[in-house]
Structure formats: structure tokens, C-alpha cells
Design goal:
alpha/beta; elongated; six-stranded mixed sheet; single chain; about 20% strand
Length: about 290
């Protein structure tokens, strides 16, 4: 029986075991075995073809940030906009097949930004080069999780589950637990769960901050945008094309004529947010025009 089959068998056993005082010890043993097998998944394969060509990027700069997300959520576009590195972006999935590094220069600090291939559900078990992607993510100081805002919280929950299963703990501090294995002396300096205790014993967990970036917010309601914007450690973004340069005092109608001469006749309303045709545009206004 392989490691994946053992993991699946233990997960089934945990799911069908009732949680109460009598089963706490049994569940603790199962979780410890599960942690052991998941750690073995991260061990590099001895086969020649498993080195992960294109993923061995030297760590440089003052900090390393890893871009994690499903395919086609805007990671490559984000890298191209934030750095001088051009990462191929297209409307089809799996445009990025290797790790592409870029550098953000901010107030004298050089921040290495890594565009990683889109991962899929089951990445922790090696699907879609997921094991190589996660191995690189473990070396980062911060994770930026790119998410499609139209998918709600589904993508976030799936990605958190994948990273959790291989020992990456997002936006959490390492449990303050001390132990001496020879005398079985264990000192809990704070309230901790059985899972957190196992994390300390295993000793290969990575704790790092994560920023959740929701893209494509123009395709959801303003109420949903507001909800996502107020989720802890989250921001909402939208990529735009080239700016339109207008003279001072230009109205929404002038913008319509600048885009296309027939657009004003089809005008319903504009979002800057939700204004009329006579609204006077201000510097750095972002406008979305809705036709009839």
C-alpha cells in the first residue's frame, strides 16, 4: 500500500470515528500517523526526473513572496505589473509552467516575487506539479493567494486545505509549547489543540503570513466586493488597461465620446460609482460604463 492510499485510509477512519473523551487518544494517534505520512510526501523523490526543472530559483533580496492560486486568476498579470519581468498571460489555463521570479523595489527594499504555476485540488498529493509548487511556497516569507472573486470563498478554502495538509500554516503563530522527549516533559504555555501539539512534535511546519487578493471584482455585486474587502488579511483588485487622458472639467459624456462616438447614445449609467452622464471626472477616477 502506497503513501497516498495510507493517507486516504486514515482520513476515512478519522471521519467515521465519533469525537468524544473515549476516542481522543485513538484520534490523536491517527492524526500523528497522518502527519507522518504527509511529511513523507514532501521528501524529494530519488528518481532522476523528479527534481522539478524550472523550480530551483535562488532566494535573493530582502524577502521572498510566493504567488499561489488556481489557474487563470491573474498571477502572471500581477507579476508583470508589479515588476519588470514579463510573465506570459493568456485566457487559457496553465500558461505558466515553471517558477518565474521578479523583483519589487519598494523604499530601498528588494522583494523577490515568484509567479508559480496554477495549482489544482489534490496538489498536495502531486497533481499538476503541485508538489513542486508547494515546496517552493514553503521557502517564502509571505504568501499572496490570488483568488477569483466570482468563486466566493470556494477557492480560498480549497487552497488553504491543500497548504494545511503539507504543514503550511497561514496567518498563525507557532504554538508556544515546550517538550523534552526523554522525560516526557511537556509544558503548554498557551491553550492548544491536539493538532497544534502534533505540529510541534513533528517539527517541520512552516508558519507564514498570507495576503488574500481577490481579482475580477468587476464581475460581482458591489455588496460582495464590500464583504470581501472587509475579510481579514484581504484586498480586492481589478486590472485595467491604458488610462484615458482628459482635459480638466471633462464629463462622463466626454469620456464616452473619447472611447467611441456611438457610446453616449447607448449609455445607461456609469459606475464611479453609479453617476450620471454629466458627472465631472476627477484625477484617477475609474469608470465603468453600462450600456442600455
Amino acid at each position: 500500500m502506497g503513501i497516498l492510499e495510507k493517507i486516504a485510509e486514515i482520513e476515512r477512519e478519522i471521519s467515521r470515528t465519533q469525537k468524544n473523551k473515549a476516542t481522543e487518544y485513538h484520534l490523536g494517534l491517527l492524526k500523528a500517523k497522518l502527519a507522518k505520512y504527509r511529511a513523507q510526501l514532501l521528501e524529494p523523490s530519488k528518481s532522476a526526473g523528479a527534481k522539478g526543472e524550472g523550480f530551483d530559483v535562488m532566494k535573493s533580496g530582502d524577502a521572498r513572496v510566493a504567488l499561489i492560486g488556481f489557474p487563470s486568476v491573474g498571477k502572471s498579470t500581477f507579476l508583470s505589473l508589479m515588476t519588470s519581468t514579463a510573465s506570459e498571460a493568456a485566457s487559457y489555463e496553465f500558461t505558466t509552467l515553471t517558477c518565474i521570479p521578479g523583483v519589487i523595489e519598494y523604499k530601498g527594499a528588494n522583494i523577490q516575487l515568484l509567479d508559480l504555476p496554477g495549482i489544482i485540488e489534490g496538489a498536495a498529493q502531486g497533481k499538476g506539479r503541485g508538489r513542486q509548487v508547494i515546496a517552493v511556497a514553503r521557502t517564502a516569507d509571505v504568501v499572496i493567494m490570488m483568488l477569483d472573486a466570482t468563486k466566493g470563498d470556494v477557492q480560498r478554502e480549497l487552497l488553504e486545505k491543500e497548504l494545511e495538509s503539507v504543514g503550511i500554516r497561514l496567518n498563525r503563530m507557532k504554538p508556544n509549547i515546550y517538550f523534552k522527549i526523554f522525560n516526557a516533559e511537556v509544558l503548554f504555555r498557551e491553550d492548544s489543540t491536539a493538532d497544534e501539539f502534533i505540529d510541534v512534535i513533528v517539527g517541520n511546519r512552516v508558519y507564514m503570513p498570507c495576503l488574500y487578493v481577490y481579482n475580477k471584482v468587476d464581475q460581482i455585486s458591489i455588496e460582495e466586493v464590500d464583504r470581501l474587502a472587509h475579510v481579514p488579511n484581504s484586498v480586492v483588485i481589478r486590472y485595467f488597461g491604458d488610462a484615458i487622458i482628459m482635459r480638466r472639467g471633462a464629463s462622463v459624456e466626454h469620456v464616452c465620446h473619447r472611447i467611441h462616438r456611438t457610446l453616449a447614445n447607448q449609455f445607461k449609467y456609469a459606475l464611479v460609482w453609479r453617476v450620471g452622464l454629466t458627472h465631472i471626472m476627477e484625477h484617477e477616477d475609474v469608470i465603468q460604463i453600462v450600456k442600455k
